[in-house]
Design goal:
With 162 residues, this protein is mostly helical. The chain contains 7 helices and no strands. It has helices at residues 2-22, 27-51, 57-67, 70-86, 89-97, 102-129, 137-159. Helix 6 runs antiparallel to helix 7 (137-159). The chain is elongated, with a radius of gyration of 18 Å.
Length: 162
């Protein structure tokens, strides 16, 4: 089962690459996917360190879920900032054409759900660590499957990005 979780961890990058090929002519989709890919690569690079934290891994994963909302919320201001610094017309084009899409709303909701699951898991692990509860049921039976659903949902949203 561990191999399956590792596969799902790298699934978003594969889907982003496929989506980039499919939507290369759409500047706003390309900008979103590039921003999302950069952030996902940073998260993958940080993951081996964060996995060693054990108790606070879930808190770090909560922040990673929130960080994955940043490309949606701040990519328009980032495009304007980059245009002002570089004067590359692509960034102005993205700034002018960018609108909030249904897929982006779905990604935000999925990431907020993932953040909530991680927050509850972190609190449950703290309660388990300090012997307030005997078994962390949510962490053992719900959290991993819920996060797989979040990853797959985000991948589906990325595939239909246009």
């Amino acid at each position: 089962m561990k191999e399956f979780y590792s596969l799902v961890e790298f699934l978003p990058l594969t889907v982003i690459a496929i989506s980039l090929l499919l939507t290369w002519k759409v500047p706003t989709a390309r900008w979103f996917l590039i921003c999302y890919a950069v952030l996902d690569i940073v998260i993958i690079l940080l993951n081996p360190t964060i996995m060693q934290w054990r108790t606070h891994y879930y808190l770090a994963d909560l922040f990673m879920c929130i960080a994955l909302v940043l490309p949606i919320v701040y990519r328009r201001p980032l495009a304007l900032f980059l245009y002002e610094k570089t004067h590359i017309n692509y960034f102005l084009l993205v700034f002018n054409r960018q609108v909030f899409t249904l897929q982006e709303c779905g990604i935000i909701l999925l990431m907020l759900f993932g953040a909530f699951i991680n927050l509850v898991s972190w609190l449950e692990i703290l309660a388990y660590k300090y012997y307030w509860i005997d078994v962390p049921y949510l962490k053992l039976y719900v959290r991993n499957n819920a996060m797989i659903l979040v990853h797959v949902g985000v991948c589906c949203a990325n595939l239909v990005m246009h």
